[in-house]
Amino acid sequence: MIELRTPAEIQEMRAAGAFVASVLEATRAAADVGVDLLDLDALAHRMIRERGAESCYIDYHPSFGGSPFGKVICTSVNDAVLHGLPHRYRLQDGDLLTLDFAASVDGWVADSAVSFVVGTPRDEDLELIEVTERALEAGIAAAVVGNRIGDISAAIGEIAHAAGLKVNLDFGGHGVGREMHGDPHIANDGRRKRGLPLRAGLVFAIEPWFLRGTDKIYTDDDGWTLRSVDGSRGAHSEHTVAITDDGPLVLTARG
After folding, report:
1. How many domains does the chain have?
2. What's this model's pTM, rounded to 2 decimal places?
């Protein structure tokens, strides 16, 4: 079911957005060569407890997950692009890391992700990250009253195709509110002027993610982590966005 939020409810959602942004900032700052992925999860878990927030991930068990997730942040490294299950792994120089985090504060959810390189970057990794960030910006710019969902999807897909990338449509953006995943689904490619008309009060996560060499993925033996079939690296950028009469409002904006 698609729900519209009142201006007052969107204001209440700002707290969740600010908290999610703060956790991503803190975990990104802590991510360095030699740091264990489980230590990043522990940091996020501690911040959840201190804030009195609730994890959206720890008990999450959708049909595509092998078991309840069991951790509070997704840590996807190199050829892993989505749903990376934290495990005993020390980050190495040059790793491309995506952190994806969602939490509930006072009953409202926000969801966001960021990709970056730990240590010495490869130019092609920086380029891939930059494409996902530009695609996210384009998708947000299209999230205005009078457009349609297809305008967001097309804006994202056009950036990807211009960079020579293929787009996987299995996972994409989604409604956000009292729960982490809701309607509408926002594919990372599509046709303009198609789909749901955009109205003030819609709140959703926009999340372009791309792999350098393929659009095909498989699920790791851990039952969660999604990896490229050819070993190529992936990047993922995401914000929770509210549509208002004054334009898109990014609730998870980082400082």
Report:
1. 1
2. 0.97
